[in-house]
Design brief:
mainly alpha
Length: about 90
């Protein structure tokens, strides 16, 4: 399976929770917390559910709670996919 990319994350985030400000996710936001981007915990949970279904993986709750930024979530998802995604 191909690596989970920033564009994949952005697409699923927009699909699950919309976008607080149009175009915001297109900027340099990889290290900005989801909270600072305008996404609450419910929006992030919806995003996680979509990622799990699309990628056929199960993310541990305690690990997900540590992924507070898009970059951290991308790294987490790609680490679950095995060596082919790295």
């Amino acid at each position: 399976m191909s690596p989970f990319s920033r564009s994949d994350l952005t697409r699923l985030l927009r699909e699950s929770a919309g976008e607080a400000q149009p175009g915001l996710l297109d900027g340099d936001v990889l290290d900005v917390t989801f909270s600072d981007l305008g996404y609450d915990s419910v929006a992030v949970l919806q995003l996680i559910g979509l990622i799990e279904r699309e990628r056929d993986i199960q993310l541990a709750d305690e690990t997900v709670s540590e992924a507070q930024t898009p970059r951290a979530l991308l790294e987490l998802v790609n680490s679950m996919a095995g060596p082919a995604a790295a």
